[in-house]
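[Q] Does anyone have a clean structure-token version of this?
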Amino acid sequence: MPVVIFVLGVAVFAQGTSEFMLSGLLEPVAADVGVSLGSAGLLTSLFAVGMIVGAPLMAMVAGRWPTRYALTGCLSLFIAAHIVGALTSTFGVLLATRVVAALANAGFLAVALAALPALAGPHRVGRATSIILSGVTLACIAGVPGGAVLGQVLGWRSAFWAVVVVSVPALIGTWALVRTESGKSEAAEGISLWGEWRTLGLPQVRVVLMLGAVVNAATFAAFTYLAVITTNVSEAGPGWVPIMLALFGIGSFAGVTLAGTYADRSAHVILTTGSVALLIIWTTTALLAAYLPALLVMATISGATSFAVGSTVIGRIITTATPTAPHLSGAFATAAFNIGAALGPAIAGLAISTTGTTTSALWTSAALAAAATTLTLFTPTRQPSTP
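[A] Here you go.
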């Protein structure tokens, strides 16, 4: 696998850390800039919105540039947003930097994913996708807890500076390793960016996009409420929460890594069997949630299976959409991932409000996994060839 793929993974690690780290820093941020905790929460929600909107928007803008300039431009903008965020004392400016960082993050990920067939080879897209997305899982395991510790010891601004420190070497490596002409297929030359939107009308593309959104919705429906389930349902002490989240993250990294080994030749098998497995896993987790040892085990298994299936379907989106949308295939995959990440917690929250039980989040994930299982029946059994 080319070294540049691992460099892109480091950049995604920094971006994933940035996306999730503020969940543990909202109180000190709110106190420092003089806003309520609810207002500070906009820093995370607007980032998510920026990722969904930014993926196609930034891909259309950056898609007109050579891949080298598009990737380094997005990453430079991401770094600049964090420098300004670390220096400002005004909440409005800080909020604006989070929106800019989200747009840059979305653009970088969209361009990077779309460039994988050229950078890694059309028959190694699944493996390359797993390496890049492992940056997100490592962010959950190490980056987010590390940012929280830095915030507690040195202040929340130090977490922003840490993201900059990790991002700069990735920026240098991307500039050095991505050739100016890299990432553009021959098909890309004759297809207009606006014309690429017609790809969404293709049934095989629509079904994998829906599958990606539903699988990730199932993942984040449960993950969002995992800490609350740990303390309220299994009645464990708060000290078990970081252990539970770490086990989910470790399982996620293992699942992404293992799936990447087989995704290029067995993607359909992973998607079909994995979706059925998720239905069983989330149902079992819901039934055993009151027992802490069982919940610890199931958190690890669910993290591994969820991200194994999730990374595989992202790779399938890229290979399915690239022939007719070489610039926007990464944007479609990024949007599907983030739509799922936004819808899952919203649906789970509605279920919890309706039933009054936190385990409804786990049953929501099981229901979404059942929907994913149905969608796999309509996914193409053969991976399309990339021109």
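[Q] Thanks! Anything notable?
[A] The CA atoms of residues 147 and 162 lie 8 Å apart.
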